[in-house]
Amino acid sequence: MAEEEPTGLQNPLLAGGLSADDITPKIYEGGFKTWECATDLARYLAGAVSGGRLELEEKEIDIIELGAGTALPTLTLLTHLLTHPTPPSSTPPKINITLADYNPTVLSLSTIPNLLLTWASCCNPSNTTTTTTTTTSRPISPHHQGDLEISPPLISSFTTNLTARNIHVAGISGAWGPSFVDLLNLSSSPISKNPDPQDATTSASPSTANFNTNTTTTPNKLTILLASETIYSPSTLPSFTHTLLSTLSRASNPFTRTLALIAAKRIYFGVGGGVDEFLSLLEGMGGWGRCVWDSGADEGGEGGEGGEDRAGGGAGGVGRCILEVGVR
Q1: Tell me: the pLDDT tens digits for 22-54?
Q2: Alpha-carbon distances, residue 50 vs 55, 59, 222, 238, 304 (angstroms)
Q3: Does the predicted model carry a pTM greater than 0.90?
Q4: DSSP code, position 143
Q5: Which of 63, 237, 253, 277, CA to CA, is 20 to 30 A from 262?
């Protein structure tokens, strides 16, 4: 699935620092940078989880992040899962984390290392053999706070502890498309209809996310699909949208709760993409989308900090929003 890419130090764009450009289409898609919309989405998820609007209680949970890069939204959910372990008397849910980025170098040098850092900041690496061993965030090194000495025993402890917690991690590199969706290994099912036609409208006005969509029975599986800053390019917008809807279609069934959130800038000046173009294409392909958080909103969204702009933009810059999307 991986696209051809110069590896290691042979790639001048990915070695020893970044290119002067934020992205170089079909070569480097910006995965080493934490973009501001990823911060928006991470804050939104943190607020939803801490506020009880998003409950991670199913027997199986799939977390899929498209265009993951530094994977901040996924790391937010992982932090919650690591710091709220299953009681010893209960079987831990199966957690499948799939992180996708165009560049395999980004996955190996940024995405996966960030998972390790998150685990180390939440757990005590010296004593993590059971599913219940967790602590609050702590200095990782007694001498240099924030530094982590990578060693074979630490990596072994990391992988062993994730396995004990029934957390499974996979990385996928390459372009979006049917082959990409096949690699996700989701069970096929008929396209799910939104239970409330009033909610299945394409809208750019803020509303509240429906964290219990696509199920009329008691669900035993939750699929969360996340993406940030992935709709900036008109040339890749059709493939991204098709991949998004195909993934949701395969994941949807009466026993699965699905939630898809896309964080983006309203307009990508100089590039051509934006929210309006995405929503128009999404509706044409049989999907729906609505804004559940807006950086310029006067009143509070779900992010826990109100509707004010917290990361630049807003009324004084390029507007940003988070869209909930689904299949009609």
Answers
A1: 655 555 555 567 778 999 999 999 999 999 999
A2: 9, 20, 17, 34, 9
A3: no
A4: S
A5: 253
